[in-house]
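Thread: quick sanity check before group meeting

JM: Hey all, I'm pulling together slides for Thursday and realized we never actually wrote out the predicted structure for the chain we discussed last week. Dropping the sequence here so it's in one place. If anyone has concerns about the input, flag it before I start.
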Amino acid sequence: MSDTPVIGVLALQGDVREHLIALASADALARPVRRPEELAEVDGLVIPGGESTTMSKLASLFGMLEPLRERVREGMPVYGTCAGMILLADKILDPRSGQETVGGIDMIVRRNAFGRQNESFEAAVEVAGIGGGPVEGVFIRAPWVESVGAQAEVVAEHGGHIVAVRQGNALATSFHPELTGDHRVHALFVDMVRAVG
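JM (edit): ok, ran it. Output follows.
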């Protein structure tokens, strides 16, 4: 891999375009990923926010669920925001019927924990490993992490709740950094991808 890693954004549903822009500004070659053969061509993957139940069903429909699980198990760097965090959880506290996850982070996540759409908010969040002060987090029907296993490291909290977790090559935030114009979280992820290459 060159200094410019190829990073996909799972483009089944959700705020794909914003992640593509954030990754490009963090010096990655960003491309949408909808099919297993596109997944095979990337060095890392972002799973965006959106609706986690819909995303899990679409991933299954498009034949993406097993290839995603396999790549994550093999150590492909992956970053999930909001719904993406839910999909990276090994366990969901209150899953919808038939909702499946990709897994990869030993954590239990509660869906819509911060409330409904009209209770969305922005907050400054200190994220371990990111210098230059807190990042602006946009919380939209955001989950939070109820608990993490021994392998997972809590990298940010807000209001007494875990909102960012890292485990090996997997990173997850319950907030949306791609909506703020501050691309430091994406830069951290691009560095994680480079470190594997």
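AS: nice. The longest strand covers residues 161-167. The mean pLDDT is 93.
JM: adding both to the slides.
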